[in-house]
Design brief:
The chain is globular. Strand 9 and strand 10 form a beta hairpin. Helix 1 (31-46) packs parallel to helix 2, helix 1 (31-46) crosses helix 10 (286-294) and helix 2 runs parallel beside helix 3 (103-112). The chain folds into 2 domains: 2-254, Alpha-Beta Barrel (TIM Barrel), CATH 3.20.20; 323-380, no CATH class. Helices cover 41% and strands 21% of the residues. The chain is α/β, with parallel strands linked by helices.
């Protein structure tokens, strides 16, 4: 059994205006105590897995995991190696926000075993950063990237967001030009989505937040793909681009319904057994999470064993995010039926509308389907 490992660090300096992730500003919980709980949970989970389980990726996300001291990150990596036979060539990623790292800290992360950095730049515009509620400046973003190179990181991804309030197509193209000039190995370029419960949601409802028109947002998406492909990046997932050989190995596990274990407050897990898989999550609050660990109990909420229909739906919902799409033969081998038999009406309609297409035995989104991806995949839910 091979699995991916995810560590959730839910603490931030300040929560951004658009963020609906499980995170909170500040913490009264010491980093060392939270790390102890993470490692204890890893021990508890390991006891439930079959012998021979190993991990090929480790991802520290948040929140702002770059607030963690490097020595604690090293403890987590060592625990993963000890308990899950973390492979020697494993991809080990930490998310970092500019302004929370410097060359020395990044070098210490590198020495601890981190070999991939995901840098939350989000924008190269001071105006856009302020509107998002980000704490860092453009200079800090660029300095953090340069510091990571100096510290020895040869695999750096940056995050960018388009379709922001007041952003024009020309402004977004300028953002992409600056990103390409940095030459990161990976670029995640997401369209802004307004999530319930966020300040942006309230601002949009009150009319305070004016977003670009849908046509403009679609053009931004198309420009992203065109410009980055021209610059040598591979468009391998709806919002993700990489230089050859630098896809996010960890995230591909999610999209391909591979096994992964999540540790920490609010973390999610998926195992491909019993028959069609099982899912669960941890308590969202660090206090509830740590209370379970203190009592020697692996935290568990919303546990479910998937039905065949749910597993097929997830295969389509997640697999269509990848540019290769869903392997028709793989679907038949797993579920004992053809895609056309499982979803006859949906496929007939979406193929006719030009949103899906068959290519070399794979069902994939067309160019138009990529723009309307959410409307396509919801047909399979």
């Amino acid at each position: 059994m091979q699995t991916a490992l995810y560590i959730h660090f839910p603490f931030c300096v300040r929560k951004c205006l658009y963020c609906d992730f499980n995170s909170r500003a500040g913490s009264e919980i010491p980093q060392a105590a939270y790390t102890d709980a993470l490692i204890r949970e890893m021990e508890l989970r390991r006891d439930t897995l079959p012998d021979g389980a190993s991990a090929s990726t480790l991802y520290l996300g948040g929140g702002t995991p770059s607030l963690l001291e490097p020595a604690l990150v090293e403890r987590i990596i060592n625990a993963a190696s000890r308990l899950f036979s973390l492979e020697p060539a494993a991809e080990i990623t930490i998310e970092a926000n500019p302004g929370t790292v410097n060359r020395e800290k990044l070098a210490d992360y590198r020495s601890a075993g981190v070999n991939r950095l995901s840098l939350g730049i989000q924008s190269f515009s001071e105006e856009m950063l302020a509107r998002l509620g980000r704490l860092h400046t453009v200079h800090e973003g660029l300095s953090s990237f340069a510091a990571a190179r100096t510290a020895g990181f040869a695999n750096i991804g940056i995050d960018l967001i388009h379709s922001l309030p007041g952003q024009t197509l020309e402004m977004w193209r300028a953002e992409l030009d600056r990103a390409v000039a940095l030459r990161p190995e990976h670029i995640s370029a997401y369209g802004l989505t307004i999530e319930a419960g966020t300040p942006f949601h309230d601002m949009e409802r009150s009319g305070e937040l004016v977003l670009p028109e849908e046509e403009t947002a679609a053009e931004m998406f198309e420009n992203t793909s065109d410009l980055l492909i021209e610059a040598g990046f591979e468009h391998y997932e709806i919002s993700n681009f990489s230089l050859p050989g630098f896809r996010s190995r960890h995230n591909q596990v999610y999209w391909q319904r591979g096994d992964y274990l999540g540790f920490g407050a609010g973390a999610h897990s998926f195992l491909s057994f019993p028959r069609f898989g099982s899912r669960w999550k941890n308590p969202d609050t660090p206090e509830s999470y740590m209370q379970s660990i203190t009592h020697g109990v692996a935290p568990l909420e919303e546990f479910s064993i998937l039905t065949e229909h749910e597993a097929m739906s997830e295969t389509l919902f997640l697999g269509l995010r990848m540019m290769e799409g869903v392997d028709g033969n793989g679907f038949r081998l797993e579920f004992g039926r053809l895609l056309e038999e499982a979803y006859p009406d949906e496929l007939r309609t979406l193929l006719k509308e030009g949103l899906l297409a068959w290519q070399k035995g794979h069902l994939r989104l067309t160019c138009r389907g990529l723009i309307l991806a959410n409307q396509v995949v919801i047909r399979f839910v």
